[in-house]
Design goal:
This protein folds into two domains: about 140 residues, Orthogonal Bundle (serine acetyltransferase, domain 1), CATH 1.10.3130; about 100 residues, 3 Solenoid (UDP N-Acetylglucosamine Acyltransferase, domain 1), CATH 2.160.10. The protein has about 270 residues and is an alpha/beta fold. About 45% of the residues lie in helices and about 10% in strands. A five-stranded parallel β-sheet has the order 1-4-7-10-13. Strands 3-6-9-12-14 form a five-stranded parallel β-sheet. It starts with a helix and ends with a helix.
Length: about 270
């Protein structure tokens, strides 16, 4: 029995060695983000040629990561890597809209440099935008590793398959969960503790739309939970804090709960002031 147990462990060890460590994969993405936004780190490239050379190295590195993980049996990993880097200008463009949305949407943000350097929401979006592009190229595993790395750093959990439009503002962000089949439009604002989740976790629903759709110009305040693949939040709606929503709401809706709060004067404190 011990021998069979050891054989099982050895087989798992061999399988593990095929996939680079999560740190290696995350470091690749971090170096890529550093090229796009050197404000995030101390990395610097004095010439255009230096930037181009570093990009070429990262493209080769992605190919090696795809080769090591055997991302697909019948595809050209070098071609997949080249296609990803051809989409990098669009990733950069969309991320710049996210920066603008956060800067303009948060009175506390003094400038875009501060958003890039200090805002966890933007950090998480950098990893998400990269992971989502890889997911769109049918790359398995790596997108999830990237978004889970950002999740571990920020507390913001965005599935790489979720579809998120431009000018997405995440403020504070801790505790946000955006499920796999979520669809989010443009100019959406989302605060901490928001969940876009499924009504059920039944494995049979794996191929179905399980998470809500959010149309353009929606604001979702902290602690709101929106569930269900058929749930649609109409354009321009405002979802209040701590709302539990499992049905669609029309455009322009204001959804809130009315908690009963009782304030009682503390006479003991007042008498001893």
């Amino acid at each position: 029995m011990k021998e069979e147990f050891l054989k099982t462990l050895f087989l798992k060890q061999q399988q593990k060695e095929q996939v680079p460590a999560n740190k290696v994969i995350a470091n690749w993405a971090s170096k890529l983000i550093c090229i796009l936004y050197p404000e995030m780190s101390k990395c610097s490239y004095p010439t255009l040629d230096a930037i181009d050379e570093e990009m070429s190295k990262l493209q080769v590195e992605l190919t090696h990561i795809l080769d090591a993980t055997k991302a697909c049996c019948d595809c050209d990993h070098k071609k997949v890597s080249k296609e990803f880097f051809s989409q990098l200008p669009e990733i950069f463009r969309i991320l710049n809209t996210d920066i603008e949305a956060i800067h303009m949407g948060d009175p506390a943000a003094k400038n875009e440099f501060e958003v890039i350097r200090a805002y966890p929401g933007f950090y998480a979006l950098c990893f998400y935008r990269i992971a989502h592009t890889l997911h769109g190229l049918d790359v398995p595993l790596l997108p999830r590793i990237l978004t889970e790395f950002a999740h571990s750093k920020t507390g913001i959990d965005i599935h790489p398959a979720a579809r998120i439009g431009e000018y997405f503002m995440i403020d504070h962000g801790t505790g946000i969960v955006i499920g796999e089949t979520s669809v989010i439009g443009n100019h959406v604002k989302m605060y901490q503790g928001v969940t876009l989740g499924g009504m059920s976790i039944d494995k049979s629903m794996a191929m179905q739309k399980r998470h809500p759709s959010i149309e353009d110009n929606v604001v979702i305040y902290s602690g709101a939970t929106i569930l269900g693949g058929d749930t649609l939040v109409g354009e321009g709606s405002v979802i209040g804090g701590n709302v539990w929503l499992t049905q669609s709401v029309p455009p322009g809706s204001l959804v809130y709960q009315s908690p009963q709060i009782t304030i009682v004067e503390n006479k003991f404190i007042n008498n001893n002031v």
